[in-house]
UniProtKB/TrEMBL annotation:
InterPro entries given in the database record: CHP03543, DivIVA_domain
Gene3D superfamilies in alphabetical order: 6.10.250.660
Name by which UniProt lists this protein: DivIVA domain-containing protein
Organism: Antiquaquibacter soli
Length: 183
């Protein structure tokens, strides 16, 4: 019986144990493999990994926290490799270009920063997203403090005719990429 993470009660859902263990083994192999080799496990792939749920599975809180640490480690390694390949000036120029794309999106008028869902479809509450977007602008333009964890864990209420969840989530992923790139 595996004890990598605490398990939920048998009556409560948690992450599928076999899937988590398989993913962690794959990540372990990728991280310890030849540094020059290509890997299917990246900081981005870790961020977008999802597991099925099962009763009595691994605690989602504990697994998610471990995945965040793993993402940080892979991002640092990817940054080191890029510095060696293209140099730190090119790496930071790429991060600045990504940050500018984010700021260009967030410069749109409030209520119009992302596509809206249909009249009968839920999306993220535009007012809540716009408020968080203003905080992101403060981070990028004025150096106001914001952590990667604040971006990773932001939760928005939903409402009819809200912002497209996919577009908002993609922007948040880009923000995380930039934040990890310049750590």
């Amino acid at each position: 019986m595996s004890t990598t993470f605490p398990r939920t009660r048998k009556s409560r859902p948690g992450y599928n144990i076999d899937q988590v263990e398989d993913f962690l083994e794959e990540a372990r192999r990728a991280y310890t493999s030849d540094r020059g080799g290509l890997s299917v496990v990246t900081a981005e792939s870790i961020r977008t990994t999802a597991f099925s749920m099962q009763r009595g599975g691994y605690s989602t809180t504990h697994v998610d926290a471990a995945l965040e640490r793993l993402e940080d480690a892979f991002a640092a390694r990817e940054r080191e490799r890029a510095f060696a390949e293209v140099g730190d000036a090119a790496w930071y120029a790429n991060a600045r270009a990504s940050a500018q794309e984010i700021l260009n999106r967030l410069a749109r008028p409030k209520g119009q920063r992302f596509n809206r869902t249909g009249i009968f479809t839920d999306g993220y509450d535009p007012k809540a997203v716009d408020a968080f977007a203003d905080r992101l602008v403060g981070y990028f333009q004025h150096g106001k403090p914001m952590s990667v964890d604040q971006v990773r864990t932001v939760v928005f209420k939903t409402k009819k005719r809200g912002y497209s969840e996919l577009q908002v989530d993609l922007l948040l992923d880009a923000v995380i990429d930039v934040m990890l790139a310049v750590r």
